[in-house]
């Protein structure tokens, strides 16, 4: 056997290396995997900006890259350290108990994450309500769906909670159709409230922020009872502009209430 063939066999038989050499090989190869993952992530971002890929597609590609990196890293550790099959058989009961007690929620989240990606009740950059939670979907990972909330914070929702909740997707036709409620007493008629409080506020709001919206806000009488009546106000914001929505919606509400106070004081 030649010198080169001997060296190649030594490189392939990583399990025969000394302990310190195994450690060095493991750290070095895992470092290479991590570098490939980071480089791939940056490449995805550059490609997305250049080719204008849909955010949901980019999220799926990044997820596949992450899973592939984890699998490759695990394979490297198994090969270098030659973990024997007897070790897996002997510890199967312990691992099963660990998975059943400590990691069942994580496993369920992973399965639920793939379910969300496949069924697509929403996509990245959609504005949704998940149960009592709401926000713009920033990322769908294997464990969590990440929302940008009206409080300008990032919220991680376990995927099991996502699939077990009622989902309302407010994003369609390229923009967010967001509605909120304004309630009044029976002191004034519906026409007076619309003409003096709601309509002037919506017109002023649209004149001020027309470049940030797609349509003029709309108002409807939603309900009424012996205590008062409620109007439904709908505003239209371009898809992916949750920060704009979270800023403008309170402003429109404030304009309506200012008109209400003016009406009461007149």
What is the topology?
Blueprint: H1 3-12, H2 19-51, H3 55-81, H4 85-90, H5 92-102, H6 104-119, E1 127-130, E2 133-140, E3 144-148, E4 154-158, H7 159-163, E5 167-169, E6 171-172, E7 175-184, H8 190-209, E8 218-225, E9 228-238, H9 242-265
Helix pairs in contact: 2-3, 5-6, 8-9
Instruction: Please state the structural category.
Output: alpha+beta
Let me know the number of strands: 9
Strand order of the largest sheet: 4-3-2-1-5
Shape assignment = elongated
- CATH architecture designation of the domain at 175-265: 2-Layer Sandwich
**CATH class division of the domain at 175-265:** Alpha Beta
Q: What gyration radius follows from the Cα positions, in whole Å?
A: 28 Å
* Through-space gap between termini: 103 Å
Q: Could you list some keywords that capture this structure?
A:
9 strands, GMP Synthetase, Chain A, domain 3, five-stranded antiparallel sheet, 266 residues, alpha+beta, four-stranded antiparallel sheet
